[in-house]
Fold each of these.
Amino acid sequence: MTQAVEAVRQQARDVFASIGLPGKRNEDWKYSDLSRLQTALGENWQQTTEVSGVDAETVKQAAIPGLDAYRAVFVNGHFQPDNSVMPEGVSLLSLKTLVEEQPGVASDLLLPHPDAPLYNGLNALNSATAADGLALCIADQIQLDKPLYVLHLGKADAAGKTAAMRHGLMLGKFAEATLIEHFVGLDEEPGLTSVVNYSHLKEGSSLKHYRIQQENLKQFHVGRVDVRQAEDSSYRLHSVEIGCALSRADIVVSLEGAGASCELNGLFVSGGRQHVDHHTRVDHVAPHCSSRENYRSVLDGRARAVFNGKIVVHKGAIKTDSAQSNANLLLSKNAEIDTKPELEIYNDDVKCAHGATVGQLDENQLFYLKSRGLSEDEARQVLTFAFADEVLTGIDSKAVRRFIEFAAFAKLPNLTDLEGLLG
Amino acid sequence: MLKIENLHASVDGKKILKGINLEVGAGQVHAIMGPNGSGKSTLSNVIAGRDGYEITAGSVTYHGKNLLEMSPEERAWEGVFLAFQYPVEIPGVNNVYLLKAGVNAKRKHMGLPELDAMDFMHIVKEKAALVELDQSFLSRGVNEGFSGGEKKRNEIFQMAVLEPSLAILDETDSGLDIDALRIVANGVNKLRSPERSIVMVTHYQRLLDYIEPDVVHVLVDGKVLKSGDKSLALELEERGYDWVREEVAA
């Protein structure tokens, strides 16, 4: 490892040593408890795992079927060139290669940012330990002709419990790309997935980002998505939480150029004792920017979800247009949601709307469906599905949408005609 | 045939139906008229099986079976259909899915094989034409963004597809302009058959100009006070409801 990279890694270790794991003392973490990380994973929880390959059949089983995309496969945080199909004509390197070939760039990507919003100790630990990742640079005017599908596979490994990855995306002026991140557990052993994703969107560029967390039910997942947007750029996220014992994501978007827009969509489908927590933070720095947030959760059993959406409208950000909505469906009386919109507005010329709802299925809708001959179970499932599916309507890849729908609603056995339901 | 005997029902302890007696034979069309608060919608909802009504006495049998013991979906499978006064919007559940699920659930109950998608779409298109419902409505969410008139037409369209043997039309005419009323009434008339009973609950005589009833009942204060032929409806239109009360009291 080069000196520059090692210096950054050491800097990150120092940050972690000083701020430690996030816990109840941090306002942003008061509902999510990482203290059980050590008990669940053991003493070597922060030790990264060694690479252990998978065969093509395993990849095929885990992957989204029918998806026409470039593919980058990771196992326990290590890039697998053999199972990957990379695009040509764009600059795409694994972090490992980047560290060797362009240590300056790698150091920049790995640099800890302890003053950034929602920054926490695990982000620092990610800087210190991230074994691999992707560095994608798309030149001005280039449109990636197919989505880049990044499949993260988690596999039990006695040597270490943490899979740490760090990705960096740079979209040039008017460049366009679609990134699909998919996290899958190959077994039922607990571990920690730590992934940090930095994206820089230059003028007029556009990034569609899908994030599908489908890890095993004992897994811990802590992610950070950090997006900086120049003028007239657009960013659209669909983040879907299905697996894990505890999954936390911090989505941080900074609208730095006039006319930039972002859209953050989130769907949680949780049961048992699953815990899922998204904190989003959108900074309206420049004027004439718009942000949209639409989060929904379906919670069963003793599941607990947290949604915290903070919008900061800076002084110069006139003509800001921002809307946030969070709707939650509690299927069990023991499920719990903590939802909190936060607005900080420092100028008068803005339009900001937010709303949150928590509820059960609508009795009038249930009766209507039953009066047409649907059984109680089927009526409940149809309404649950329709509630959640609303978040997915903006997904323009049918393969991705169908995959999410089937993965998220596998627990609803009476929905035999999903295709028909969706029309 | 539908047979209601001495039916008493309450909502939150308040007595609404106070001893309804009614018999509707196969192929007949009955109109139930009455002022606001007389119990018309309660009667419709009790027949269809909506929660929230306490049946304190009496019985409702259909084809000799006790309807009150059945869940709403079982009633649907037995051929009961309620056209709602206020059809609810269900975004995200498309019309065709709902109808296909409903039709196939009923067929399964009757021991018939499920309809395949092709056959089903053929039926759906034919029935949509019956109430002049544009094809584009079929793939939309149930009643999602429909106007008042479109919602009522959609109810009759659903009735056409589900082919009930007993249809309760709860104030299907309310909120319709004259053109929409004509379309809905034409749809209902085309669905009249010797096997199908229709109960129209309405406020106004107007509907009966388009759908001619065999029997008209006057429901006041939770009781059927008077029954007669269609001329009774005209008399109600002219004289209001008070004379019926007075006649019964006398």
Amino acid sequence: MSAHKRPSDDGKLLELIAKGDHQAFRVIYDKYYKRIYLYSYRQLGEGEGAKEVANEVMLAVWKGAKQFRGESKPSTWIFGIAVNKVRKEIRKRPPHHEDLDAAEKKVDEKLTQDDVTYRSELRKRMKLAIDRLSREHREVLDMTYYQGLSIKEIAKIMDCPANTVKTRMFYARKRLGGILQEMGIEIGGGA
Amino acid sequence: MKLKKKRGSLCPEGMDLLLPWYLNGTLGQGEKEAVKKHLKSCSICKEEFKEIKREQKLYQSTTEEIPVPQTFPHLMAAIEKREQGSVWQRIASLIPRPQPALAAALIATQFIVIVGLVGLLALNPWGAGERFYRTLSGPTSIEGKGPRLSILFQDGVQEKTAREVILAINGTIVRGPSPMGIYTVELRSVMNPEEIQGIISALRQKRDVIRFVEVQGE
């Protein structure tokens, strides 16, 4: 999550990519692919689509590096591409009708106080809770908690004012907290 | 500890809205210092911050076990394939592209050359074609002033033979064949009666080819 701290490095790498430098592309790939893949995975809820989207994003970076003007941070630009690609992919897909209650019940059955199993089940419940959030809430949570982006960067990517980002995050957390509470999440002091 | 949100009791200064970004370290220096100072005195934000930390940790843990595919070689192969393009694209890429001004000059030159050639062919100053080939009939001969002969060829005479006969007398078919098979052939120049008679005599000697020949209008 240090991309936003080293914008000039990434900017230089994008310049090199624009000239067709494969090594520079490899560096950017190593730095962003995992984050983009996992972002797509969390948004789409499955791996195959996430891989496809992440590859498309990297291809777009390769092809579009010439168009990068440095008006935003390279990480903002790259995540902007990722957010748009994921949104496009979500629009293409039929509405999600997963039986979340049944899935939660399945997790309940497995829940034990064994530490390793407990943490694993906790993660599964969190994932279920995230799946129940709206796209906007998932996006703002992910960009803040996982991608480590600033309010300004998120505002640029989501094309909304900074205050909207703050309130959206507030309501996303509120909704997430409500869902977790419904699911009886016990985090414990060391979690 | 149970995650229990008390959203109704927000920080009066609204500092809790900045806490997620205080945690991820992206606040500006001023906001960062303000939040840091505020946290020392606000119990609501202090509690909220602890919850945000747990939330973030739990959030990040959801994808801990997900394997990330290694697609770089596949991606590079796709890029290289795309860059190489088709055979024609590669050939086209070898041809240097002229500058716009040069390209415009080339197009103008081509246009002038084409117009010039068309004009030259239309004027036909050397009489090209006429010298080497002429048809046995045609509009140019219909208005001619030469004498006209009526010729009836023998049955079974081939077109090639008839053609040779007509060309030998420098004639042109201007009409025919009639229902009786008679051709009207015009001689190409004004002739005196002796010359015409000579031609008729010559034709009449070709009995295996010509059945009948006479001057029209006599």
Amino acid sequence: MNFTEEQIERYSRHIILPEVGGKGQAKLLNSKVFVLGAGGLGSPILLYLAAAGVGTIGIADGDCVDLSNLQRQIIHDTSRVGTHKALSAKKSIEAINPDINVVTYEERLNADNIRGIIKDYDILLDGSDNFPTRYLMNDAAFFEKKTLISGSMFRFDGQVTIFKPHEGQPCYRCLYPEPPPKGLVPSCQEAGVLGALAGVVGVIQAVETVKEILGIGNGLAGHLLIFDALGMNFRKVKVRRDPECALCSDKATIKELITYEEACEIQAAKCGHSF
Amino acid sequence: MAVKVRIPTPLRKLTNGKDEVSADGKDVKEVIDDMERQYPGLKERICEGDGKLRRFVNIYVNDEDIRFKNNTDTQLKADDEVSIIPAIAGGTA
């Protein structure tokens, strides 16, 4: 791959790292990453992947920017309130790095559209905000044999892991076989989350993504990283492949995508404006 | 024998805000029962009616998931650290 003078300068701090080099930077520029959610986790993920020169970035989000999002969703700004999050994120990415080809999906993913959308990407990231979408994404990633880098958070706690069942590593259902039934977890509105926690969790997802693309270091596949912001503790526990997993084991019973009921009504901001 | 149990944020309402509690038991089942005595209501948040763990809650002894050991019969020794780790879904999209 031939870099332009501008690219050599832009990516110089990557290129001088022996673990990256020109070869690694070319891998980043040729990679295709899909990010589900341009919200709390999606914001730092997208900003860092764009800055790193990940060549094609897909962004799916059906919502529009709401004033209450700006406490943590740092890819958007006050002038974008009422616009589609995916389009707002695209605008921010293009301002950071014109090298990036951004593909937007201003729609909610469902069992009918998800596999068609994700099949063209190398790596998938989950920054969604509800269980039905997380299980949908996990199952679709399994069927499409894609690596899924998952981050989630709740109040002051964060979790990050990588699912690679196609490489003999566990999937989300190996870790948690089923979503909680409706009513057993606090609803989204009453939960709340520390804004900067989204930065910690999302940036770890971005670091893991870049490492996956470059093929360096030890990734989080087979481990769950748990971050407790109040205690300021990071801990890693093992995630094992479940020999009884309903999705990825020999005893699998799930053969197609399942649609779970939303555990809480998600209040979508009104999309009053568009670019 | 007492072990340390780490409590996740969603359950701290039941432990008076404590992120770590001490509980007695020779295995995980006894520790859960002792926690229930100290903090009533905690058991039903992590176990089904039949005492089995709920499918969106995991318990770890040190860094091992008890589902891959002896489940709630997993034996404990002094200095083991028990952690309750529920699935969380927020990404605030």
Amino acid sequence: MEEIFSSLAKDFVDETQPLTQEVGALLLKLEEVWRAGGNGKSLLRGVRGGLHTIKGNAAMMGLSDIERVAHALEDVCPKVSDEPPRDPGGLVQLLIEGCDLLGALVKSAASGDGETGRADAFVARAAAAEVSLREAKAPSNGGEVAQETGAANASVAAAVEGNDRRGSARIADEDVDELLELAGETIVGQTELLRMHGRFARGQFEVGDVASMDRLLVDLGRTTRHLRDRLLRVRLAPIATLFGRFGRYVRDLARERGQAIELAIEGGDTAVDRAIISRLYEPLVHIVRNAVAHGIESADERQAAGKPAGARILLSARMREGRVDVRIADDGRGLDLLAIAAKADAQGIDTSDFSEREMQRLIFRAGFSTAKEVTNLAGRGVGLDVVAGAVQGLGGSIDVRSTRGQGTVFVLDLPVTVSLQKALIFGVDSETFAVPTGFILDTIEIQEKDLQEINRVLLASWRGDFVRGIDAGRLLGCQGLAQAWARPYAIILHAGNNRGALLVDWLSGVQEIVVKPLDDMFAACRMMGGATILAQGRVVPILDCMEVARRISKALMPERAVEEKAEAGYHVF
Amino acid sequence: MSSDAEGAGARHESTGDKAEPLLAFADALLAEAGREHSDVPGDVRQFVTFILHDREYGIPILQCREIVRVSAITRVPEAPAHVRGVVNLRGHIVPAVDTRSCLGLGSVPTTARSRLIVVEVAGRQFALIVDRVKRILRVAMSAIEPVTEGAAPSGATGVARVGDGVIHLMDAARVLREGESAVGSNARGKEA
């Protein structure tokens, strides 16, 4: 047992020590870039990626000193999205010292000599520095912290700081106490597990170990679930906070038209994720504006049709089967199917065998605004297709029901909470995929000269080093003829112990996506971590980076490629 | 007012089949089947029938949720051969199953007449890609003949004779299972 541990420790040192040196080198470059006024995003990404891996490696080995120092460094290290610090000197100095300490701690890990004292001292310094950094930043972007971190203590800290700005939440003191207590319980459980792990690693077993571990895991499981549930509740807010914003809006619209429009609200106390509430405002504005511009008739028209002159718009929400049903209803003229048919005709869509429902749903297609005249209420270049995309992007769906002369109802079916993840969208051949940003070290432009093939291994040069690469089209089985050499971009992935370059055709921005699981039919698709719906309703598969990085680390160029290159007159070595 | 909304939906479904051809009719029937099956006399079964390779097949209307046009199908790398990919069904990501390859008929590209029959079996939703949708078939239980070995595709649960045509009655879950047993489909391929 002792031997196994020491060989694991050796692996750990071999793997982690170069990382500490690499992070140190990146930090020096970062300081230069910052001093020159650059933002050094890719360097920063490298630093954060390196620290994260060191922390993960140390946690797996139960080396809590290293883990704590790496964690403290991550806390003080600016986020990739942050503005570069104005005076980087002190911060970089602290980071470099921490990095040196990590190097020393890693080196001593093999011998088993702890330096808990030094680690404690550094963690305390880093914590002090982080507080002062945060205070310095708080007026400008204190709220951002809440959106970015999943860690319980960080969100609590941000929430306590919180105010009414977007991305922050108010929490009652007793809730904070309860959350802290739960967090404390998980730490106690984890410490106990670590202690047992240390004992097992030394080959010491006691009677009843299995039973006490069972008990520990059950307790820990219950506590963490409880913690998550409580945190989720913190994220909920009554939808009235969203609906309430429409009172003024509808009144202004009504005044512009010189017509009374009553806004009614039902189910305002329905609790929904704040992330959903903040992203639902724009789509609702659009639907309400549409209702007023296209749906509601003039007062004369309404009276001729035997309706009251004043129109009515209803916003309602209710829970249904664990989801939220949001409706926006108006009592206007209803959808004009003839106008929709004409529009479809103009776009070359054959609607001869469309059902009424299918006709109505056409309004969610791109370019289907049917306003007779462009008023300042409608025709602002945003269509209902964008609204549908936004709703689907939140993991929801949208539908419309309308009866001529009686009104239109938009029905939104939404989840109560969403887990939004940041992902980079890329394309290869004619297909589009998403990669979670947590696994991306860097994205670079790449040329043929940056790639070489040695013994059927494709190597891409990156920051003066080489990483194994693979053509994304081949890895993902796309139907294209292009090869690795022709791809203009590389995504450098880092997952587990593997690192690799994915060669792709184009990169699009990073965006927040809702991860949806794939059906069991796709169980064999190990490289897929789910799918998401982008704006315009496009379904895009999400890569499982652990598996992709593992495949890259084993990938060989096809033999055929060597022959082709030889035929093309290349030197083959 | 929200009850008005539901009223609006219901009214539409009863008037939708007035002049519209098949799809509206199917829509209305599906809605009806979803609401109350008791309308249909006990010994009459309803099937949505579709065409694959010039032959007519039917699946129970109670398994069908919806019939939609084929929109963009996103391929999923390393998916089994009988699954063409996934589609966005108003915010739900639903697998699109290549019905032809499930039944060993050879995959073909979709056309303007191709449809997705969205089915739900045991709480699981997926879409069957078919060459085209033909009709809603009402057939008395007594008129459904058992499958004769070798004469019907595997996965068939019965045979209905309409005029001089033969309609193979299928079960959506069994169609999917046929596709999953790749060995079976290979064997059929060799026989053919």
